[in-house]
Design goal:
The chain is of the alpha+beta class. The chain has helices at 17-20, 22-30, 40-51, and strands spanning 3-6, 62-65. A two-stranded parallel ribbon has the order 1-2. InterPro entries: NAD(P)-bd_dom_sf, SDR_fam.
Length: 71
């Protein structure tokens, strides 16, 4: 079994501030290697990859999907 560990993602979680507050989004983007808050589709794409046949030999991993947050 593998696990996806998402970073800051623009969703309803936490009152939606990562989705709706431009100042929060800018701050998180400034400490993220890829320069922006993740979107739900970013985490979904990582999940689809982990569930795909190409990952059938990978097991027991925690896969961070954070865009390089706090590197």
């Amino acid at each position: 079994m593998n696990a996806i560990a998402p970073g800051a993602t623009a969703t309803d979680f936490g009152g939606g501030s990562l989705r709706d507050d431009a100042a929060v989004r800018q701050h998180i983007g400034s400490v993220t290697a890829l320069g922006h808050v993740g979107e739900p589709d970013d985490v979904g794409a990582a999940m689809a990859t982990v569930l795909g046949d190409g990952m059938r030999w990978v097991t027991g991993q925690r896969i961070e999907a954070s865009g390089g947050q706090a590197l």
